[in-house]
Amino acid sequence: MNAIKQLFKAYIYGSMHVAMSVLALVLMTNHMFGLPFNWAVAVFAYCGTMFSYNFMKYDGLFRVKKTAGRRIKVIVGLSTLALIVAGISFFFLERITQITAIVFFGLTALYTVPFFPNTKNLRNWSGVKIYIVALCWAGITLVLPLVDAEVPLTSDAYLKFSQRFLLIIVLILVFEIIDLKEDDPHLKTIPQQIGVRKTKILNLFLLAFLFFLELLRITIDYRQLAANSCMVLATAIFTIYATPERPKYYTLFWVEAIPIFWLGLVVLFG
């Protein structure tokens, strides 16, 4: 039982779960636009996400020698392996896809590492974090598969991009509610500025907007609409019951599983 618990912690804190969510959204793009499975895009998205998130969390261990527990050392080792695999899969992407990937992962690097003297990374820029993360998620999970498959970016693609962007913002806001007591006040997160209650109202408004975007498609897919309804309802429930007193796994496992749940609904209703 203890071994299973340790494996679960490695899965969560090693960013394998969040990488699964990114992969789920990539597979959703394939399903929605009728794309064949592309192993290079899938592997690059999964391994690139795993390494990026772990580098953001444990960047000091990558750059300097520090004492760390066994679990952290395992995570750093797996992250290094993920970087190598992501690098290999990168060379199997189309040239335009490689350029697109560099742009989005470049933003991730700026988020973590200050490239210029006497400057902060994007993570410490008040109010920027939420938009950078949402932009990267939407770009990696939607733009990358479409560009690699040479699918033109139609109005439907822009609508789907907007939905992904909004969903990630909503999920981040739930994280910020849970982390309210621990976040540095200088981060000026949305809950810090407007309070938990107003943040929840904002989240519910964004979810409603995300849902109604589906009605603007050239051809309305009622099966997709049904899947979106269930996903929006589940996310709304997580929003309503989010409080700073909730345990970390409320977001680290359950909230981050929303994209995986959404993929399951799309396949079920599709």
Brief rundown of the structure:
It comes from Flavobacterium album. 73% of the residues lie in helices and 0% in strands.
**How would you sum up the global shape?**
globular
- The number of helical segments is 12
Provide the low-confidence segments as ranges: none
- Overall pLDDT metric: 88
Describe this structure in words.
Keywords: Membrane, Transmembrane, Transmembrane helix. This is Prenyltransferase. Helices cover about 75% and strands about 0% of the residues. The chain is an all-alpha fold and about 270 residues long. The longest helix has 25 residues, at about 40-65.
List keywords for this structure.
single chain; 12 helices; mainly alpha; transmembrane helix; Prenyltransferase
Helices and strands in order:
Elements: H1 2-13, H2 16-33, H3 39-63, H4 70-90, H5 95-112, H6 129-148, H7 155-178, H8 190-194, H9 196-213, H10 222-240, H11 249-254, H12 258-269
Protein name: Prenyltransferase
Keywords: Membrane, Transmembrane, Transmembrane helix
Transmembrane segments: 7-27, 33-53, 74-93, 99-116, 128-149, 161-180, 201-219, 225-242, 249-269
